[in-house]
Design goal:
The chain contains eleven helices and 13 strands. By secondary structure, the protein is an alpha/beta fold. The structure holds oxa(dethia)-CoA.
Length: 333
């Protein structure tokens, strides 16, 4: 009997309409287009302007896009996972609301948070449910409304992040396609360098904290940068070695879009040509849990059945890793 593997069989995405360009940011904080472009590769990002709409709004739109593009019946979906660092609210899961809104009424659902590695770790979780034989499909959505925790007076963070969502459907596969291997790691000593300190269970959100912006995300950019460059590249290199893959065997690198220089460093470590490196950071910035599915959505038409895709991510926590996946279908367009 052949082993069941978990393959991505459908993709969808959504980004909000409002475009926050580097030029607009120049009017908000002491920065400039040249600095942002050369240090990060970002030209613009999308922002969900409506305060009454949370991450679920983005997640629902991305999932609906996937369902519509592939003529799926949402009632056939068995599990909905929303990977996010910015859930709609505490206690009530964003995934449950999302699942009900898209009509996935036969599914169970939950949220997953590993900061910028939420989607990467979510791929591992989704695949495990399928490989175990207990479920035949899982809808994995990566969605973040980063603008809800960004201080637009802090030039160290507001130039980087954007809002967006992407969704993939994992299904059982008996041709050996899909997730082949993973190398995932965490190091909690890194949490002091990237966090939104107040508003969780350890530090209450008082009126004073709120007035000082303590609920916003803070990062010590240089330390996060150094750790991201080392660990993301290291994880990608380890995955290649462990699977006896040379650079010629790799068709695509889908790396977390946090900074173009971090992506380039990862590609250089595995000696990969630029044409094989998926990039959309210039359009969306760092959308945290949404970067990997947004990449897959943007490159879907170029992906071919059997392509070897190396995923890599690094984020707050610290959490990082790499996944080797064999793409399962040719473009449906
Ligand atoms: O997705 C989760 C993981 N997050 C990341 O991977 C982000 C990792 N970090 C980074 O991408 C980079 O560290 C940043 C883009 C955040 C910052 O780039 P950097 O090259 O590390 O700059 P820096 O923080 O070392 O700052 C260099 C200089 C400083 O000025 P001085 O001290 O040299 O005079 C900063 O004050 O650039 C200044 N600076 C800015 N200047 C113009 C910092 N932010 C800005 C800005 N515009 N927005």
């Amino acid at each position: 009997m052949s082993k069941i593997s978990a393959a991505i069989t459908a993709v969808g995405a959504y980004v909000p309409e409002y475009v926050l360009t580097n030029q607009i940011l120049e009017t908000m904080v002491d920065t400039n287009d040249e600095w942002i472009t050369s240090r990060t590769g970002i030209k613009e990002r999308r922002i969900l302007k409506d305060d009454g709409k949370g991450t679920s709004f983005l997640a629902i739109k991305a999932a609906q896009n996937l369902i519509d593009k592939n003529n799926l019946d949402p009632k056939d979906i068995e599990l909905v996972i929303v990977a996010t660092a910015t859930p709609d609210m505490k206690a009530a899961s964003t995934a449950s609301f999302t699942a009900t809104e898209i009509g996935a009424t036969n599914a169970f659902s939950f949220d997953m948070d590993a900061a910028c590695s939420s989607f990467l770790f979510g791929m591992s979780v989704a695949a495990s449910y399928i490989e175990s034989g207990r479920y035949k499909n899982v809808l994995l959505i990566g969605a973040d409304k980063m603008s809800s925790i960004i201080n637009y007076k802090d030039r160290a963070t507001c130039i980087i992040f954007g809002d967006g969502a992407g969704a993939v459907l994992f299904e059982a596969n008996d041709e050996g396609l899909g997730l082949k291997d993973e190398y995932l790691r965490s190091d909690g000593s890194g949490r002091e360098f990237l966090q939104a300190t107040y508003g969780g269970s350890s530090h209450a959100l008082t009126a004073e904290v709120l007035a000082n912006g303590g609920h916003y995300a803070f990062q010590e950019g240089r330390t996060v940068f150094k750790n991201a460059v080392f660990n993301m590249a290291d994880a990608a290199e380890k995955i290649l070695k462990r699977n006896n893959l040379t650079k010629n065997d790799v068709d695509w690198l889908a790396a977390h879009q946090a900074n173009k220089r971090i992506i380039d460093a990862t590609a250089q470590r595995i000696d990969l040509e630029d044409e094989k490196v998926m990039i959309n950071i210039h359009k969306y910035g760092n959308t945290t849990s949404a970067t990997l599915p947004l990449l897959i959505n943007d490159y879907e038409s170029q992906l071919k059945k059997g392509d070897n895709v190396i995923f890599a991510a690094f984020g707050g926590g610290f959490n990082w890793g790499s996944i080797y996946l064999k793409w399962a279908y040719n473009s449906k367009n």
